[in-house]
Each structure stands twice: as structure tokens, then as C-alpha cells.
Write a sequence for this structure.
């Protein structure tokens, strides 16, 4: 995506290494062990957990009221007494708004990817496992969505449906279904060709059992890794939509929207105006690094 | 080769049909009546009906779609509800401005990515490799509209070295090749190129590294070829993959430019799209989306064809 976009490209075919004991406990244990030995991933996970906890617990953190405006306390610089990160263009406390902003920004970045993972993942596994006409039908529909740059699709859909959190979530989910579906389809097709699937079929296992035990165990890893790499794209896209005025509506605190409203302050207090973007940047970098770490730990080649 | 290109073009027809359906649906995703955007709520019913008839909104949806498709295929994208001008001419003039910016950003990103990626793949020291990896990580993680604002703050507000917005001096609406217009281009180009820069640097680095470990490189070294000549061979082998990724990125860049154009008030398609959304000018929204998606499709096709041309290993099945 893309945002390029952040990009939504798969970057070549995803290779699956067959694991004889599908989803066996030993595999996940070794993944966990490798993750624990990866300091970068651990630090990123720590920062993200901190951000999530802070936004969940925001009302109990004795922060200033993020909605309380004050005409005399507008655009205080960083380090002001009582407002250590200053105040925004309407005199609201920046620190409180940045922490509260994480609630919507994180929610709007993660939710579409999770929804798309459920929908796109199921569709992709269905297409890959059943094959034939079903595959054709599903994948040709996905091709249509692929004919749009991801950012354009998100903005056009949101623009047509109108601003609002629900519409943003809906359009972002639609944007992320096709790439996840494509990855799921390609890994499932590869897994279906392995001998153990034939063996299971020969021994009379039902299609559902084969998918649940043999296919899911092998494809879930690559799909999950790919989906986590989309979260950072989603966070940037969601913030971008709010930045354009297509997402969250004021006065809700949200990083993208704050970046937009603070643009008028770049001549008065430039550092302040750039602060919400720092939050987006940090979050997105952490998700990217975590996805890299997960990829390495799960030994997914992509 | 020509046959292959033709066949790919034919494959594109069903996709294009789907795209047209989706773009058509955009208008009907909009809450309320498409006509409600241009008439005051207290307008008499006859006027509303007249307008509905004029825009064809009174017919059943399939009829509307076929009529719209027929008109669109002749190159007529309708009239803007906001300005009353033809959508095709509005999108056309904006599209040129977007393309200029996109070409500049693509060239900048690709050149830098090849240099950085190759340097990292060749680097004996870990520091160079780490540094390049960091740059590409930042490239893919940075919210580019935020970077645009930061660039404006540093180079326009603090240093006053470059203009903060617009395509040229004094409300210029078209691009010209002169100093002032070039100066206006620098910041948007940099902001737009960070994402492709990050992605392509990553690809170049890994592809060159992979090629370097191939046996033919060892053979060339053994026969005593100069390193600079070997580099040429390596790059030639790595080129198809890198070109493919760059092509995809160039297309996505068109989408990404919507945000950048808004920050810099660059009169391109993104800026047009954004203002159309706020004026609820659905024909413009539709027209811009259609043109951009069409361009994206053709670009992807071109990249595919070029890739098979430069890389004989790909089967033209």
C-alpha cells in the first residue's frame, strides 16, 4: 500500500516449507523461543503494548480533559507548565490528546486488517483448496480491486460513502481483503499439492478436517505474517483518511486528524504541528519491525 | 511478443468491466440521492425531477449503468456538478500535473534505490548494510503526508529556501520547465518518493545479494573479469525483479500522491479528487477514479510486458 503506497505487493511467490506435523506444538514453541531472543522485536512489542495499554487506560491516567478548549491557552509551546507537550490550536492539552488519539488511531489501523484477515483469508483458502471455477470466480473479483492503487480505492470509497469512523473501517477492510486473499490463495494452492494432503484424502479424511488440520496449520503462518505487515500500512492509511477529513470527525482526538488541524500552526509552533505524525511514525515502524521479526521467527520466506 | 501483449490486453477486458461496475457503484454508495448535492433541500419537486431526468437518475440501475458505460466509452465523463465544466477536461488537465510529479518521484526513488541497494549488497562493513536497511525501513514506515509537512516546516518555514505550496509562482495552474516551477517540485517529489524508495531499496538489496551468490559470478571472478564489469552482469540479472517492483510502486505512487497533492496544493488529480469529495461532486469523483484506475491497469500491463521482454526466462504462456 501501500501507501504505497505503502505497498500491497506480495513480492514474489510465497514459499511454504511443508511441515509434517501440521501446527504441532514443537513448531510454535520454537517460534516463541526465537522471538524471545530477538531484542528488536521485543522492544517494538514493548512499545506497542505500552501504547495500547495507555490508550485503553487513558481515562484513568489523570490526564487533562482532551476535549476542553481554552481560547487563552492556544498553541502553548512544548514544556509549558501544566501542558508539557503544549496545547493545540483550540487550547486543548496535547499530551492528553496524543494518548487519547491512540485509541482511535490504533483501533482504525488494526480492525480493518483483522476483518480483512477473516474474510480475505477464508475466501483465499476456499479458492485455493477448492480450485477450479470457484477459484476463478473469487480471484477474478479480487483482480478488479487490484486494478486500483490501494490509496485511491480507500479514498474513493470513503469519499463516496462520506466521512465517519464506520465508513473508514468499511472501506479499509475492502482495501485489504484482496491482498490477503491473494496470499492465502497462493499458499493454500501450494500446500494442496503436497503429498500429505493426498495421503489424508486417501485415508478418508473429510475436506473440512483436511483444511482444519493440514491446510490451516501450514498456511496460517505465512498469512499471519503478511497480515501483520499490513497493519502499519493500515495505520498510515487510516490516519491519511482522517487527515483528508474523510475519517474521524472533529473534535475526536485522532493522530491523522490532529495533523490536519494543526497544519495552520506550522508558522507559529512547528514542532507541535509535527507531533501527531511522530506517533503514527513510531507505531508504524514498530509494527513493521515486529512483522519482520515474526517472519524470521516463523521462518516464512516471502 | 506482439501476440503476447495482445492476449494480455484481452485478459484485461473482464477486469476493466469489473472496474467500471465498481466506479459506477461509487455514486450509489453515496448516502442519499445523488441529486441532493446540487439542489437546496426546499427545491420544488418538479425541479428535482427535471434534474433527475437530465442526469438520468430516474431510470433503473442497469439502464443507468449501460447508458453511463456507453457515454464513458466515447470519452465523455459527464459534467461536473460543482463547476458545470466537462469532467474529461478537468481530469485531463489535472492528470498532466500528477504525471509530472509521479515521473519525477519515480526517477528519483529508483535511482537512489539502485545506488543504495547495490551499495548495501556489496558492502563489506555491516554499518553500510545496516544504514541502508534502516533507510528502507523508514521509507516504508513513514506517513508520507506527515513527512511532507515536516519538509515544509524545515525548508519553507524555517529555512525559507523552497516554496511551501503550489505548482509554480502566482497561481500557476500548469507545469512549465523553468526554475520557479522546478523549485516548487522539489519538496513534493521527495515526499512522494519515500515509500517507493523504501520498498525498492529492499528489493534491490536482496536481489543483488542473491545474484552475487550465484555461480556465474564466481566464474566471472575466476576468469579475472574486472569488478565493474561483473557489477554490470549482476545488475542485468537483478533488473527484471527490481523493474517489476518499481512498476507496481510507480502505480501506487499515483494513489499516494492524493495526500501529497493535498498538502502542497498541487493542482493534480489527487487535489481534484479531494476537493470533489468535499463539494460532493460525484461525476468528478467518478471520472478521476476511473482515469486513475485505467492508467494503473495499463501501467501494470506495460510493466508486465517489459518484464517479459527483458527477462527471457519468463515464459510467455
Amino acid at each position: 500500500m501501500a501507501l504505497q503506497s505503502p505497498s500491497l505487493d506480495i513480492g514474489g511467490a510465497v514459499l511454504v516449507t511443508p511441515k509434517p506435523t501440521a501446527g504441532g506444538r514443537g513448531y510454535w514453541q520454537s517460534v516463541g523461543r526465537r522471538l524471545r531472543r530477538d531484542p528488536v522485536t521485543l522492544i517494538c512489542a514493548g512499545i506497542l503494548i505500552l501504547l495500547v495499554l495507555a490508550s485503553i487506560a487513558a481515562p484513568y491516567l489523570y490526564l487533562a480533559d482532551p476535549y476542553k478548549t481554552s481560547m487563552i491557552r492556544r498553541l502553548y509551546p512544548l514544556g509549558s507548565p501544566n501542558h508539557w507537550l503544549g496545547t493545540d490550536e483550540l487550547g486543548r492539552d496535547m499530551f492528553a490528546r496524543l494518548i487519547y488519539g491512540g485509541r482511535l488511531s490504533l483501533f482504525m489501523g488494526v480492525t480493518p486488517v483483522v476483518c480483512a484477515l477473516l474474510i480475505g483469508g477464508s475466501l483465499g483458502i476456499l479458492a485455493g483448496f477448492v480450485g477450479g471455477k470457484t477459484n476463478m470466480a473469487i480471484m477474478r473479483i479480487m483482480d478488479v480491486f487490484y486494478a486500483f492503487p490501494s490509496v485511491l480505492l480507500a479514498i474513493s470509497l470513503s469519499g463516496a460513502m462520506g466521512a465517519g469512523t464506520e465508513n473508514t473501517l468499511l472501506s479499509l477492510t475492502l482495501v485489504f481483503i484482496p491482498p490477503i486473499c491473494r496470499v492465502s490463495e497462493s499458499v493454500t494452492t501450494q500446500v494442496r499439492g503436497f503429498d500429505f494432503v493426498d495421503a489424508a484424502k486417501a485415508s478418508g479424511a473429510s475436506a473440512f478436517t483436511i483444511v482444519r488440520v493440514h491446510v490451516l496449520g501450514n498456511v496460517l503462518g505465512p498469512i499471519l505474517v503478511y497480515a501483520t505487515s499490513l497493519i502499519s500500512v493500515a495505520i498510515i492509511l487510516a490516519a491519511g483518511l482522517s487527515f483528508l477529513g474523510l475519517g474521524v470527525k472533529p473534535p475526536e482526538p485522532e493522530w491523522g486528524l490532529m495533523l490536519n488541524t494543526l497544519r495552520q500552526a506550522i508558522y507559529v509552533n512547528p514542532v507541535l504541528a509535527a507531533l501527531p505524525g511522530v506517533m503514527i511514525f513510531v507505531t508504524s515502524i514498530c509494527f513493521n519491525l515486529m512483522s519482520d521479526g515474526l517472519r524470521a521467527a516463523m521462518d516464512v520466506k516471502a | 511478443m506482439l501476440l503476447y501483449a495482445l492476449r494480455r490486453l484481452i485478459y484485461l477486458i473482464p477486469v476493466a468491466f469489473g472496474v467500471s461496475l465498481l466506479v459506477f457503484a461509487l455514486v450509489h454508495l453515496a448516502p442519499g440521492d445523488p441529486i441532493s448535492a446540487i439542489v437546496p433541500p426546499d427545491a420544488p419537486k418538479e425541479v428535482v425531477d427535471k434534474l433527475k431526468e437530465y442526469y438520468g437518475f430516474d431510470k433503473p440501475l442497469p439502464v443507468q449503468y449501460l447508458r453511463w458505460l456507453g457515454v464513458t466509452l466515447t470519452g465523455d465523463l459527464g459534467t461536473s456538478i460543482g463547476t458545470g465544466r466537462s469532467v474529461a477536461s478537468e481530469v485531463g488537465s489535472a492528470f498532466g500535473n500528477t504525471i509530472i510529479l509521479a515521473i519525477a518521484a519515480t526517477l528519483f526513488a529508483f535511482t537512489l534505490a539502485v545506488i543504495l541497494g547495490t551499495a548495501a549488497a556489496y558492502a563489506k562493513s555491516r554499518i553500510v548494510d545496516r544504514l541502508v536497511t534502516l533507510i528502507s525501513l523508514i521509507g516504508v514506515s513513514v506517513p508520507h503526508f506527515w513527512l511532507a509537512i515536516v519538509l515544509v516546516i524545515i525548508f519553507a518555514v524555517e529555512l525559507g529556501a523552497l516554496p511551501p505550496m503550489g505548482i509554480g509562482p502566482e497561481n500557476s495552474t500548469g507545469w512549465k520547465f523553468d526554475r520557479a516551477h522546478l523549485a516548487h517540485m522539489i519538496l513534493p517529489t521527495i515526499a512522494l518518493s519515500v515509500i517507493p524508495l523504501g520498498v525498492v531499496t529492499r528489493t534491490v538489496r536482496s536481489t543483488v545479494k542473491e545474484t552475487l551468490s550465484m555461480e556465474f559470478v564466481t566464474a566471472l571472478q575466476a576468469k579475472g573479469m574486472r569488478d565493474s564489469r561483473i557489477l554490470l552482469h549482476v545488475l542485468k540479472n537483478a533488473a527484471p525483479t527490481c523493474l517489476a517492483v518499481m512498476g507496481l510502486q510507480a502505480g501506487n505512487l499515483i494513489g499516494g500522491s492524493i495526500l501529497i497533492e493535498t498538502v502542497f496544493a498541487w493542482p493534480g488529480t489527487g487535489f481534484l479528487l479531494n476537493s470533489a469529495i468535499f463539494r460532493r461532486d460525484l461525476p468528478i469523483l467518478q471520472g478521476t477514479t476511473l482515469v486513475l484506475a485505467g492508467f494503473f491497469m495499463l501501467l501494470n500491463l506495460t510493466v508486465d510486458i517489459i518484464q517479459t521482454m527483458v527477462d527471457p526466462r519468463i515464459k510467455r504462456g
